[in-house]
Amino acid sequence: MARMKFLCDADRCIECNACVTACKNEHEVPWGINRRRVVTINDGQPGERSVSMACMHCTDAPCAAVCPVNCFFTTADGVVLHSKDLCIGCGYCFYACPFGAPQYPRVGNFGSRGKMDKCTFCAGGPNPENTAANYAQYGTNRLAEGKLPLCAEMCSTKSLLAGDGDIIAKIYKERVAKRGYGSGAWGWKTAYRETIAG
Amino acid sequence: MTLHTRIRTILGVFAIAFAVAFVTPATAQSVNPQQQSVKEDQLLRELNKITGRCTLPNQTACTIEQPVGRDWREFHQVTLRWIAAISIVGVLALLVVFYLTRGMVKIESGRSGRTVTRFNGYERFVHWMTATCFIILALSGLNITFGKALLLPIMSPEAFTAISQWGKYFHNYLSFPFTIGTVMIFLMWIGGNIPNKTDVEWVKRGGGIVGKDHPPAYRFNGGQKMIYWIVVLGGAAVAISGYILMFPFYGTTVSGVQLAQIVHGIVAALFIAAMLGHIYIGTIGMEGAFEAMGSGEVDVNWAKEHHKLWLEEEMGKGSSRAKAQPAE
Ligand code: HEM
Ligand code: SF4
Ligand code: SF4
Predict the structure, then answer these.
(1) Is the CA virtual torsion A187, A191, A192, A194 positive or negative?
(2) Can you give the pTM of this predicted structure?
(3) Which of A168, B24, B298, B323 sits CB 3.0–4.6 Å from A161 for a disulfide?
């Protein structure tokens, strides 16, 4: 089985936000929630870089460890998913997540923030079928249809790579070798405890 | 070659040389755009997080990497559990041992049959309101810490979520009466709870619960004063940290919320351990103690043995003593 990962080649990202838009549209993500976002570091200064970030589907995921109701599970593809039926909206996964991925429908936070929402790697929820109920909760399950995440597919510069970790790491290494530079796979050390030589 | 063409040639050579000299460093620079670019390792080393500009209304989303979550996870999953388990189970074990060796502290001279008012209706109401909230807060809070280890294995995930969801509602809503009760306790009993010389004497003589002694005390003895300050200060600490958890990101970042959870978890665990001791003395630990908060009336002999100086004050007030507001 593949071990699915994301890789954002920050030297290519032009902050066009196509990935963000693709995600919101594909899954009809509710207003106020962004499963993926693009952040620009040192904006307007020399050396500025943009990084597209979502849930990294961590190895030994911190969110899953701290969840008081154990509602997370990792699929055979290494995708970290959770059950919205079991989530109590306590906010702990957000405190533990190194990438700020979990989001809540209500920011008022009183009593309940509502069910946590995050990137599913386009793999739906606990129930793999593409039913209307599943779609409303988690969005489409593209993986079940043999497709990869839409954000990476829509990326205008192919900066964002999504798929089998070994394959996207290889693509990235080839790029770095060819062009002679690369700022590394952002977040990989934190998420997967490994880096790709840049 | 005329002079004219010679000059032209020389100029041309200069121009090319100049162009080459000028252009070469420029192209060398553009080959390595990496030189100045921001680097993940360096940013993490400097700030331990990576934040930039993003176009979202939710500005916490502009932080894309913050590895400290891993440390907090360790605290939440391992450290807090040990602290809570050791303090709570430890105190329970001590109390069992203590009960088996010392037993209930009896009223030595027996009951006199006459009573004196110790706590009026208002005081008892505040006490029980706060205590009820405390117990529910403690159970629903401990469910967050230990529920998935202790309860989840013996029930379905759906049932456990239902319990936890209700627990969360109770924990969040009962925080308000609990906080109000703590403030009221602070105000109504502060007068009798300023530590003074009698407490030093009281502590030196083992407080009467350890030995067989009955050191004199005013309305609140040294031990009760300790409980009072644990409730007031502990209550303030859990309330402040709890409200930060309940309304996160109003003036705090993720690290602030993590810190609030650390304070909340540790103080709550120690608070629960201390209250177990309090509940023990108020019930099976001491004969005649529960009535003080039950009916509000205590036996005069009980008062004589445990709160001699207070009883003398009350008696001094004459016939109205039973109905009067207790002295400070
Ligand atoms: C004044 C009021 C309080 C407020 C506003 C408050 C708020 C909170 C919040 C928001 C949480 C996070 C989980 C959730 O959303 O349900 C929490 C957790 C917790 N609370 Fe409180 N709480 C208060 C008082 C107490 C008291 C009095 C106790 C104990 C006696 C307590 C014990 C705990 C425990 C053990 C946890 C779980 C800690 C963990 O494992 O992470 N709380 N509280
Ligand atoms: S990025 Fe955050 S939400 Fe995603 S698996 Fe890692 S810890 Fe969990
Ligand atoms: S918000 Fe939901 S998913 Fe996240 S830790 Fe709490 S219960 Fe688990």
Answers:
(1) positive
(2) 0.85
(3) A168
